[in-house]
Amino acid sequence: MDTIYALSTAPGKAGVAIVRVSGPKAIEAAQQLCPSLPESRKAGRRTLTGADGTAIDDALLLVFEDGASFTGEAVVEFHLHGSTAVIKALLSELGQMGGLRQAEPGEFTRRAMENGALDLAQVEGLADLIDAETEAQRRQALRVLSGDLGKRAETWRHQLVRAAALLEATIDFADEDVPVDVSPEVSELLRTVTQDLEQEIKGVTVAERVRTGFEVAIVGRPNAGKSTLLNALAGREAAITSEYAGTTRDVIEVRMDLQGVPVTLLDTAGLRETDDAVEAMGVERARARAEAADLRVFLIDPGEIPDLDVKDDDLVLVSKIDTRSDGHKGVSGKTGEGVSDLIETLAQTFAQRSAHDGVATRLRHQEAMPRGLDRIHRAQDALNAPDDLSELAAEELRGAVRALDSLVGRIDIENVLDEIFASFCLGK
Fold it and tell me: Which residues contact 279 (CB under 8 A, 6 or more apart)?
């Protein structure tokens, strides 16, 4: 492989900047800048000097030998003063060295995967950790990065391979000294994997929501105070408010951290019949987004029936409670009455949902696990058939293994890699 280098911290002025070099010529490159390197995996303060003998910076160096670094190959990290001039000078020196080139986005992480330091699920977890904005996202990303999904996939793989091997033994070595009836062990292995997969599949939707954010739609008639409530929840003027009905024509989105849970609030057009073509489009969009949202907050008048079906966990609140004296409990975005209670209810609801999330967080996980589960069901049907279909069952189990192997990147991943690593910044 080429030896690659890049700035691994954010560009611009900072207290410290880190330039990473990885590959077979990493240590040789560092020695050209500083002949005396610190011991492997021990930090050392050194003066870096360019090819013309000019000092570049007084820096901290970290050296990792082949197999001991994040990428799995020899790595040198230069911890510099975070001056743009210092960074530019070091990158210029590295660029003039033979056999070195600037890294592409995500290339350090890609090498870590190719060298077996990370599996594909862990790579995705690392990307999620970098993008994490809330506490729930951080915890979830760390679970994936720690290899939880890979460990589960490896367990499922081992059990399915064992089951297939038992079936193949009865086929290929029927006259040899093998178990006469392997069906009890095979059935138990398949039952265990099926149960685990079904449980993990149930948690995919919630896990994906933790990663991307839950959606809460604020729904009601025109001029019900939806935009005012959105602004109160967001803590800023995110939506235009007016005493005139029909001000909101499109769906307005505000992303926020709700006690550690990522939530996107949706302010929708007022639901009513209208001859205004533009407003009618807004109403139709409002209905569609509200139906697809994870939870709806209905703002109504006392005795009013919501225009959409109320689902589990939806909240129905009397709007503009500050203008009423009838004793109803509700919410007012204008005065803030009931807003704290609403936030607490939303936070508790999503915290309870998040408690049941799994470590499979992406669409491709959601597609791979049902494929594997379907092949296992086919294998179970073959085993329960009147005729001896052990060979067919074994083939179905091999198909299940292939489907689950895609979770951690053993097979069928080339079409996924470019998309994943393109989302990484340079130097990661």
Answer: 246, 249, 269
